[in-house]
Amino acid sequence: MKRKILLLTVINIIVFSPLIAQGGGEKIFFEKCTACHTIGEGKRVGPDLANVHQRREQNWIVKFIQSSQSLIKSGDSLAAAVFEENNKVIMPDQPLNESEIKSVIEYISTNSPDPNNPNIRTPKQIFDPTAITQADIDRGKKLFEGTVKFENGGAPCIVCHNVQLPGMLTGGTLAKDLTVSFTRLSPAGVDGIIRNPPFPAMVNSFANKPLADQEVKDLLAFLYYSDDWNLYQNFSGNGNIIFLAVSIFGLNIVFLFFLWRWRKVKKHSVNFFRI
User: Fold this and answer.
1) C-alpha–C-alpha distance, residues 65 and 46, integer Å
2) What is the number of other CB atoms lying within 10 angstroms of the CB of residue 67?
3) What pLDDT band is residue 121 in, cutting at 50, 70 and 90?
4) For residue 9, how far is the Cα from the chain centroid?
5) Same domain, 121 and 141
6) Are residues 176 and 257 in the same domain?
7) Are 194 and 245 members of one domain?
8) How far is 169 from 158, CA to CA, in rounded Å?
């Protein structure tokens, strides 16, 4: 019985973990924090949280986020000072557990600028999906296809690469398909390759014809759109997979019910039921 339950548990973890493992620190930060805080963009209602993990101990941050006023009332002088510095605006208590808050701290850490190396950009400085516009995407598409030429005369991306989108011209096959390049390489990876080409064909095309900063941003916006659009289409087309996962979960419940009933029956011999 125990082995069967363990097997079902393992199967459920395999099936459902991809569906559960979403969100994390970034999702919580955007839902709970962005109304009052930024990471490296200056003070809003509350203080800029860039590198807060270096200025405050983690346990203190956890307590302050969960209930800043409780911490102040306990006599914590640091919490009282933060309250005073921010015009005594009361920070609402956040119903987050320690693990959730630590994931937010990790997100802040990852996206904070390095005070010792200002030339290193944070992921948000490299690419912020909330800042792109349709005009950025359209310019990026035109640059990719070559209907608008690069400022320094570099070859259009479509010569070697392809992107699968409705209405797109078919691109070359000499290099990787860039349809989901953001998922495969991350925004920082795509940005790094465009700005500092590591491949011989790209070096030959762009070594003396670097892209302007705005051109890079427009290409990133277009490739982000391509990635996002295709992932959405794939997710929309995965209804059968979701149905299968739900079905397996339901069958597990039925199976466990019958196992439970079977154990109850086995406790009594057949003669027990005879009159």
Assistant:
1) 12
2) 17
3) confident
4) 27
5) no
6) no
7) no
8) 8
Quick one: CA dihedral 49, 50, 55, 61, positive or negative? positive
Is residue 258 predicted with pLDDT exceeding 70? no
User: In this predicted model, what pLDDT tens digit does every residue of 53-78 receive, in sequence order?
Assistant: 999 999 999 999 999 999 999 999 99
Mean of per-residue pLDDT scores for the chain: 82
> Do residues 215 and 150 lie in contact, with contact meaning Cβ atoms separated by under 8 Å?
yes
Q: Using alpha carbons, select from 46, 39, 38 the residue that is nearest to residue 64.
A: 46
Rounded to 5°, angle at Cα 33 from 28 and 36: 170
φ, ψ of residue 45 in degrees (nearest 5): -70, -45
Q: What is the CATH number of the domain that holds 76?
A: 1.10.760.10
Six token digits for residue 117: 């190396």
Confidence of residue 8 (pLDDT cuts 50, 70, 90): very low
Is 188 inside any structural domain? yes
**Residues 44 and 77 grouped into a single domain:** yes
Structure token pair of residue 104: 């937010």
H or E segment to which residue 192 belongs: helix 187-195
Contact 125, 113 (CB under 8 A): yes
89 lies in the same domain as 157: no
Query: What domain range includes position 120?
Result: 24-126
- What's residue 257's pLDDT? 65
Is there a single domain that holds both residue 160 and residue 180?
yes
In a domain, 12, yes or no: no
Dihedral sign, Cα of residue 106, residue 107, residue 111, residue 115: negative
Per-residue pLDDT tens digits for 223-246: 999 998 887 776 454 445 555 556
Cα–Cα nearest to 168, from 187, 144, 186: 144
Q: Which of 14-18, 153-157, 160-164 has the lowest mean pLDDT?
A: 14-18
